[in-house]
Amino acid sequence: MPKGTDTSTWTFEDYFAFLLVYAAEADFVIKEAERQHIIEKVGQERFVTFLGHFKDLKDVERIELIYEFKNKYCKTPEDSDKAMAEVESVLKEDEHLSATEEQILISIKRILKYDKA
């Protein structure tokens, strides 16, 4: 991770905030409805903090981070399903999924897919 992005103390709530920001940024812009949805879920301060972390990372680093923390915080199918439901709810805030958002949704589903190994 780049300097300034220390993930060693991240909690589930931090991971969740980062995941929701990642989903909302799928089409390169966080719409107001998406922003409000995330703030309702994680709070203003956490949203701003993790938006900053998100912007500091390259896309491959973002994906690696989501995968790394998936193994820590989505250990069961239920955990993965809960996280995925929230991702979908953020993306559906603007009532129309762009092609880019659809592809990000598919990618996140693949990352969060529960595997026993």
Short overview:
This protein has helices at residues 12-24, 32-42, 44-56, 59-73, 77-91, 99-112. It contains 6 helices and no strands.
Explained architecture:
It is a single chain. It is built from 6 helices and no strands. With 117 residues, the chain is mainly alpha-helical. The chain has one domain (12-112): Orthogonal Bundle (TerB-like). The chain is globular. The two termini are 25 Å apart. The model has no long low-confidence stretch (mean pLDDT 87).
Kindly report the average pLDDT value.
87
| CATH class wording | Mainly Alpha
Number of H- or I-type helical stretches: 6
Which geometry do the CA atoms define?
globular
How far apart the termini lie comes to 25 Å
Number of strands: 0
Instruction: Report the sheet with the most strands, covering strand number, pairing sense and barrel closure.
Output: none
The CATH architecture category equals Orthogonal Bundle
Helix-strand layout with pairing:
Blueprint: H1 12-24, H2 32-42, H3 44-56, H4 59-73, H5 77-91, H6 99-112
Keywords:
TerB-like; mainly alpha; 6 helices; 117 residues; 69% helix
